[in-house]
Design goal:
By secondary structure, the protein is an all-alpha fold. It has helices spanning 2-10, 18-34, 46-59.
Length: 60
């Protein structure tokens, strides 16, 4: 995760202020967790994976 943050967000952006940095990093984090599939999770987003795991626990 830390390498992705650096490569895809911090190194790819120029921040105009601390507020701008906070806003852009939060946007990237939301995209990373909500919209972007992860191969390690079977091409699901982390939120989709968590929902599936929670559903499986409820059924069991």
């Amino acid at each position: 995760f830390n390498g992705r943050v650096r490569a895809e967000c911090l190194n790819a952006s120029w921040f105009l202020s601390m507020a701008d940095a906070i806003e852009r990093i939060e946007e990237w984090r939301c995209h990373y967790n909500n919209d972007r599939p992860h191969t390690s999770l079977g091409n699901l987003t982390p939120n989709e994976f968590a929902r599936q795991t929670q559903t499986a626990r409820e059924i069991a």
